[in-house]
Amino acid sequence: MESLRSLRKARLESLVDVAKEVGVAPSTISRIECGLIMPSLPLIRAIAKHFGVSIDDLCPYLGRRNLCEVNKR
After folding, report:
1. How far, in Å, CA of 44 to CA of 13, rounded?
2. d(Cα 19, Cα 8) in Å, to the nearest integer?
3. Strands (E), 11-51
4. What is the DSSP letter of 60?
5. Residue 28 backbone class (left: φ over 0; alpha: ψ -120 to 50; beta: rest)
6. 15-57 pLDDT, tens digit each
7. Distance between CA atoms of residues 5 and 69, nearest Å
8. Quick one: which H or E segment has residue 4?
9. Burial class (CB in 10 A: 0-12, 13-18, 19+), 9
């Protein structure tokens, strides 16, 4: 499965680029990509909007689909 990092790199964006667009620190995006943290639902929404994908499409990139499903309720 493709990673969030691969999705970002496919758009030729840096951690800083994505972080600025979604309103967090670059280290936060890095920690999400590395699987060290799970973003909040508002951040998941912002990331999904930034990449032009649905939350359902994005959750596998985050590696924790079950948590995303719980957050959508």
Report:
1. 17
2. 11
3. none
4. H
5. alpha
6. 999 999 999 999 999 998 888 888 898 999 999 999 998 887 7
7. 21
8. helix 4-10
9. exposed
